[in-house]
Design goal:
about 350 residues, DNA polymerase, domain 1, ten-stranded mixed beta sheet, 12 helices, binds S-adenosyl-L-homocysteine
């Protein structure tokens, strides 16, 4: 039987197990601290517990690890990209970035993705499975161990659609922010979505304090549906309404992600349409020159992105071009995992996936 990863258990669930074993109330808090504050990797390191209890924990639970399959350090900035191997052999990517205000980590939430955005490397080979709360936490803990630093903020912008793994992502938020555990304020967390409208509203109602980033990429219904199939299910007007609701309910300004792609979404007419869409909304537009991926011919000239930014500003939109970090180490999400899966498939004599 597969053992339960104790890192995924809420303090309440842990308490229920321990009380059933006749342990005192404070025990769960103590163990939770060993796991999420001291971040031990073995039960034997929990030295404030009796040997007997440590053995019992060992028999009933496991503390999983992620293996560093590859580590790419940028030579132009302090960005480090990790390809982690999960306990079942799948891979995900995690990127450590150095900002003036501290260390930020970009984590994955699924193995693959089923959203089908045309420009995104994470979705090309489809969806494999959701990550567990423990596998999301472990991206932080393993990176801290390797880099010898404390992570100050988090973005859920790696592989996967976080709101398509809603339950585990929310469980992860609760573990992450628990005062007896890692204790990160959710104000330091941003979650990025391609636009799963009902989930945006649900997240708003939870008032967790996380920042919402929405991958907008086009103000034009037909164009957006072409590059982002999710737009056929949740069209732009509904998405923008959900963003307004998010701001009204949480007081948190929404970030709009916009990857500028030559010949697709970067004209003056697009800027005008975008400004009209966002009129009166409390939001900020993050422009990103699209990162070219091997399977598609999407490109962006820096000059065009700058012109698009100027045009938006002229129209009164709060827009900036995001600083691209780690451009020499394929920091665009999904590319490293694609390469690794491909190499393994080739080595095994299998076809491409
Ligand atoms: N599924 C979520 C989060 C993962 S992608 C979402 O869609 O928001 C994180 C961000 O990177 C999204 O804004 C996504 O649209 C963007 N992105 C994906 N591929 C890209 C590429 N090739 N160039 C630029 N941005 C890209």
């Amino acid at each position: 039987m597969e053992q339960i990863d104790i890192l995924s258990l809420s303090p309440e669930a842990l308490r229920a197990y321990l009380e059933a074993w006749g342990e005192p109330k404070f025990r769960a808090k103590q163990i939770f601290g060993w796991l999420h504050q001291k971040q031990v990797t073995e039960f034997s390191q929990m030295t404030s517990l009796s040997l007997q209890l440590r053995e019992k924990l060992e028999q009933n639970f496991c503390i999983n690890r992620l293996n560093i399959e590859r580590r790419l350090a940028s030579s132009i900035d302090d960005t480090v990209k990790y390809l982690y191997r999960l306990p079942d052999g799948n891979f995900v990517e995690t990127v450590l970035m150095d900002y003036h205000h501290g260390k930020s980590l970009c984590i994955s939430t699924q193995v693959g993705c089923r959203m089908g955005c045309q420009f995104c490397a994470s979705t090309i080979a489809g969806y494999v499975r959701n990550l567990t709360p423990a596998e999301m936490l472990l991206q932080i803990y393993e990176t801290q161990r390797d880099a010898g630093c404390r992570i100050d903020s988090l973005v859920l912008m790696g592989i996967g659609e976080p709101l398509d793994n809603f339950e585990n992502v929310v469980a992860f938020f609760r573990l992450l922010s628990h005062p007896d555990g890692f204790g990160m304020s959710l104000r330091h967390v941003a979650v990025s979505t391609c636009g799963l409208v009902p989930r945006i509203r649900e997240l708003a109602d939870m008032r967790l304090g996380v920042t919402l980033s929405v991958s907008l990429h086009s103000p034009d219904a037909r164009r957006r549906s072409e590059i982002m199939p999710v737009n056929r299910k949740y069209p732009l007007p509904e998405l923008l309404e959900a963003c307004r609701y998010y701001f009204q309910t949480t007081g948190r300004r929404v970030t709009m992600e916009y990857a500028v792609i030559d010949g697709v979404n970067g004209t003056k007419a697009d800027a005008k349409k975008l400004a009209d869409c966002l009129h009166g909304m409390q939001c900020h537009v993050n422009l990103i020159p699209v990162n070219p991926i091997a399977e598609r011919s999407f490109r962006a000239f820096r000059k065009n992105v700058e012109q698009f930014e100027q045009e938006l500003r002229r129209l009164g939109v709060n827009a900036t071009i995001r600083r691209t970090l780690g451009s020499d180490i394929q920091a665009a999400c999904g590319q490293l995992r694609r390469d690794a899966s491909q190499q393994i498939a080739d080595a095994c004599g299998g076809g491409s996936n």
